[in-house]
Amino acid sequence: MSDTHNWERQLLEKLASATLVEQRRSRQWKIFFRLIWLAIIGFIAVSLFMRNEEKAGASLTGSGHSAVIQLDGAITSENDTGKKMTEALDEAFRDRNTKGIIIDANSPGGSPVLSGMVYDEIRRLKKLHANIPVYVVVSEVCASGCYYIASAADKIYVDKASIVGSIGVLSDGFGFTGALEKLGVERRLKTSGENKAMGDPFSPTNPKHEAIRQQLLDDIHAQFIQAVQAGRGSRLKNDPQLFSGMVWLGEKAIPLGLADGYGTVASVARDVVKAEKTVDYTQQDDFSSRVARRIGVEFAGGVKSLFDTKLF
């Protein structure tokens, strides 16, 4: 009986010891992950503080600076391009020491809606702050939606090898009707509204729907052309290819009136704005926003309309 009691006691002691070890490890992991999160939050806070200090320091000097806003990558809602650009523009214009704004552009284009929103915001803010000029400097590419935005600026500067233009609209998609037939798959689609399934990739092309789709593209293209003409004015040359969707190198874009000259961010700040010091007003994502957007993109999982209109 004594041996049985000893065995039970030893077992209980071992179980209790294992439980304590597991609890200790669990607490250690919790502490570890809390420290990681604190480090991330601290890094973000320091980055924001240093960014704000840079801007505050530039304002306190009173000597004036060139505000730089980066327009980089595709113009999409996933990137929050419209929100970031409008917030950066508003902040730069409101700074009393901003002598000029330089948009550092390197983008193939994107959403016509977001491009139009940023274009309108630039023109609105320019009316409110007539003493602050806006310039666009193209590094590699400023095409389609990017050029839509750029045309609102006072002047556009390029490199001789920059790619500029692509004033056009496209809508891409695929048709899988032949593949479905070969696989013996029958598409059973029901709609309420004769045009509701327009652009469905699993249905045969419909001449009426194609005509509607083309009209939409033509209307957006007309808005694009009107914006460029309003922004560039008499600088644009009367070339039949200007609004055809073609692109040009920077050295060809200048004679066509699509650009005004050669320049970099540094040279425009120094020689045009006359404020060599630059302050970056580009809006950056915080960590939580990046994670949330990434989760959203993964959740969407490519569920995207094939009737996707872009200024690419």
Automatic annotation (TrEMBL):
Name used for this protein in its record: S49 family peptidase
Molecular function GO labels: serine-type peptidase activity
Pfam families documented for this protein: Peptidase_S49
Keyword Cell division part of the UniProt annotation: no
TM regions (residue ranges): 31-50
UniProt record similarity statement: Belongs to the peptidase S49 family.
InterPro entries in UniProt: ClpP/crotonase-like_dom_sf, Peptidase_S49, S49_SppA_C
Gene Ontology biological process terms from the UniProt entry: proteolysis
Peptidase S49 domain location: 127-274
The entry's keywords: Hydrolase, Membrane, Protease, Serine protease, Transmembrane, Transmembrane helix
Top-level division of the source organism's lineage: Bacteria
Organism: Chromobacterium sinusclupearum
